[in-house]
Amino acid sequence: MSNHSAYCGGLHIASLRACVEMARLMNDTNAVDEYEVWLKLAKKSYEEKLWNGKYYNYDSSISLHHDSIMSDQLAGFWYLRLSGHKYEDFQKERVDSVLDTIFKSNVMAFGNGKLGAVNGMTKSGELEIVSMQSEEIWTGITYGLSSTMMMEDRRKEAFLTAEGIYNTCFNEAGLAFQTPEALTRDAHFRSCGYMRALSIWAIQKALELSKLEAETNSSIRTDYV
């Protein structure tokens, strides 16, 4: 990873939004103004240097893998969405396009949806083999991705993606009480007991948030009528 990247860039945007909100809570108008300028610049750079029309490139380098499809490219959006934000910093149309691409490439094209979401796939639809990490399915990343799908009203895709990694870890590998950080499609795994898998609770949060938003929208429509 070098230059601007989808993963780090998205988290940078999310962190700047968090700074804006914290400054507002502290009534620090100077800090709000400053962080909003940085946030605007970060979003402009992110879109101009990484968006390719369907998803965000892995990074903005000239490497052969710069346009790889990273399953965790919406990590920043995921954080903000779980925090109660919607599309202030990430365009809904692009979020939808990214989720479509990841589900098709990193979930369904890899193991026919039965393994979870692999970290990296090439633009041509092949497994990205540039590093050990790109060839792996990360348990926590898959659950986080599933919760993002859930919040974007993609329940079928969300549960299928989560089911893949759950079945692989617990039923196939027998790692119910030592959930690994990473697995490969040839049954290798590493880092048992890794904490990232606790992101499975984000699915519960996503379900609660989706229910709340549905009830709010229903109330708004009723009030309007």
UniProtKB/TrEMBL annotation:
SUPFAM superfamilies (alphabetical): Six-hairpin glycosidases
InterPro entries per record: 6-hairpin_glycosidase_sf, 6hp_glycosidase-like_sf, GH116_catalytic, Non-lysos_glucosylceramidase
GO MF annotation terms: beta-glucosidase activity
GO process annotations (BP): carbohydrate metabolic process
Limits of the Glycosyl-hydrolase family 116 catalytic region domain: 2-203
Protein name: Glycosyl-hydrolase family 116 catalytic region domain-containing protein
